[in-house]
């Protein structure tokens, strides 16, 4: 359905389900991990990612774990404990998405947005924190 990898290609994956919504998260953790104004995730059902090599896991807060490549540091996924049925896959790691192209649905955690970044007028929903 979709495939991708980290920057150094040590970690490669395929997903057995099409990614659906695309969410741009502006929280400070995502910003810092991405080194960018926000981190984009597509959502896939939990357990639908098949790893050729398992990424490393990091418990990023009381609410979530994130995975990354131990060689190049690329962010790969985020799992939020309160949403066990889905997993966020870092959208920039995707190489190929067959069929369904995820559409941008929301900018979230705008209360933590970088002051120097202007959110584009792209029609996506906007939330101060988690989507309501
Ligand atoms: Zn890597
Ligand atoms: Zn975030």
TrEMBL record:
* SUPFAM superfamilies, A to Z: Mss4-like (SSF51316)
In its keyword annotation, does this UniProt entry include Chloroplast?
A: no
Q: Which residues form the CENP-V/GFA domain?
A: 2-128
Q: What is this protein called?
A: CENP-V/GFA domain-containing protein
Keywords linked to the UniProt accession: Lyase, Metal-binding, Zinc
Task: Indicate yes or no for the key word Plastid.
Answer: no
Please name the Pfam families in this protein's record: GFA
